[in-house]
Amino acid sequence: MSRSFRLTRRAEASLVEIARWTIETFGPRQSKLYEAELLNRCEGILSGAAHSRSCAALVNQADDLRFIRAGEHFVVFWDQPEEIVIVDILHSRCDLSCHVAALMALKNEGV
């Protein structure tokens, strides 16, 4: 069985919001291009072609959470043996450490 990637509901909601904002700001054509760029980055993570960084440098005990830059966003994910789980897609101007800490708190609560 080959591995795949999946988006959490949080990541799906972020992708929808990114598309909405991009349509309003740059139009539908650019929105489709940017969405494809983000999803291609997810494919790159899956294939091993995209080099990510551990979130442990940002938040203590976030060793299994990783991130990678994709355009003006960060794709935050768990690299699990059976699949890549895209946890969220965050704007590059966000406080990444704060968001990673919140994601780790959710994980620890079992959400």
List keywords for this structure.
111 residues; globular; YaeB-like fold; 3 helices; single chain; 46% helix; 5 strands; 5-stranded mixed β-sheet; alpha+beta
Number of strands: 5
When the domains are counted, the total is 1
Strand content: 25-35%
| CATH fold field value | YaeB-like fold
User: Helix segment count?
Assistant: 3
CATH class: Alpha Beta
* Rough outline: globular
Q: Distance N terminus to C terminus?
A: 27 Å
Question: Major β-sheet, in short?
Answer: 5 strands, mixed
Strand line-up across the major sheet:
1-5-4-3-2
Share of helical residues: 40-55%
Gyration radius, rounded: 14 Å
Task: Report the order of strands and helices.
Answer: EHHEEEEH
The CATH architecture would be 2-Layer Sandwich
Mean pLDDT: 88
Coarse structural class:
alpha+beta
Note poorly predicted spans.
Answer: none
The CATH homologous superfamily is called: RelE-like
Protein name: Plasmid stabilization system protein ParE
Keywords: Toxin-antitoxin system
InterPro entries: RelE/ParE_toxin (IPR007712), RelE/ParE_toxin_dom_sf (IPR035093)
Pfam families: ParE_toxin (PF05016)
How would you characterize the overall build of this protein?
There is one protein chain. This protein is α+β, with helices and mostly antiparallel strands and 111 residues long. It has a single domain, classed as RelE-like (YaeB-like fold). It is 46% helix and 25% strand. It contains three helices and five strands, in the order βααββββα. It has helices spanning 9-26, 28-47, 96-108, and strands at 4-7, 53-54, 65-70, 73-79, 83-91. Strands 1-5-4-3-2 form a five-stranded mixed β-sheet, with helices on both faces. β4 and β5 (83-91) form a beta hairpin. α1 packs antiparallel against α2 (28-47).
